[in-house]
């Protein structure tokens, strides 16, 4: 059979020849020589500022610090401070005398008002009146204390012991006596000879129950008021 030949063979050859560099290892055949007119000039490599743009029509110019031709300075009127001060003194209120306190023989004195000896605070309208924020704070503290006491009492009532009424006490006493009679009847029905371990244990159990019932009956009959804790 004939050898396979790709249909892209010619295009691949063309691409290989097109991308191949003739001077890949030896450098270009001819180097462009610089022109003698393009010599390096002084300060040619320094950065240059962009040229200023000319002002276009319609743009507003920035105000200059130099006054314009139409500027007219304000003429200041001279004042007669002597007459002004004299008028102020004549129309002004007279100076009130200040209270002094002399504490030495040489006449050393100091102002009485800032010394603390002059009673200026007692002349205020709100002198001796409790501030509103203090009153409000006291009311809040009192309310919080009442709420705390109420919560404590409620917790104590929940945890308080319950008192048995006379009817409940009588019913319990009757039930205990009835139970004692039943246990005593069972105890009296025991055989005389306890020769086995089971008989001995049964007798001891009945004796313990009788002792406990007798103790409970005596305690209830002795105390008229009985309290039961809420567990």
From TrEMBL:
InterPro entries: Enkurin_dom, Enkurin_domain-protein. Residues 43-59 have a biased composition (Basic and acidic residues). The lineage of its organism: Eukaryota, Metazoa, Chordata, Craniata, Vertebrata. This is ENKUR protein. Keywords: Cell projection, Coiled coil, Cytoplasm, Cytoskeleton. Residues 138-170 form a coiled coil. It holds the Pfam family Enkurin. It comes from Regulus satrapa (Golden-crowned kinglet). Residues 136-228 form the Enkurin domain.
């Amino acid at each position: 059979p004939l050898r396979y030949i790709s249909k892209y063979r010619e295009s691949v050859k063309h691409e290989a020849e097109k991308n191949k560099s003739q001077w890949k290892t030896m450098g270009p055949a001819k180097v462009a020589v610089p022109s003698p007119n393009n010599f390096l000039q002084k300060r040619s490599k320094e950065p240059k500022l962009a040229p200023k743009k000319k002002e276009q029509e319609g743009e507003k110019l920035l105000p200059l610090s130099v006054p314009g031709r139409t500027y007219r300075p304000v003429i200041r009127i001279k004042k007669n401070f002597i007459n002004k001060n004299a008028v102020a003194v004549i129309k002004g209120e007279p100076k009130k005398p200040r209270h002094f306190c002399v504490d030495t023989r040489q006449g050393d004195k100091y102002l009485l008002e800032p010394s603390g000896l002059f009673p200026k605070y007692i002349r205020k309208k709100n002198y001796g009146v409790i501030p509103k924020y203090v009153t409000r704070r006291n009311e809040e503290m009192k309310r919080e204390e009442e709420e705390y006491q109420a919560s404590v009492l409620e917790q104590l009532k929940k945890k308080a012991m319950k008192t048995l009424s006379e009817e409940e006490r009588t019913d319990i006493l009757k039930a205990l006596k009835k139970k004692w009679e039943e246990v005593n009847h069972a105890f009296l029905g025991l055989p005389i000879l306890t020769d086995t371990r089971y008989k001995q244990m049964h007798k001891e159990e009945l004796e313990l129950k009788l002792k406990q019932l007798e103790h409970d009956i005596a305690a209830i009959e002795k105390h008229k008021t009985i309290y039961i804790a809420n567990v």
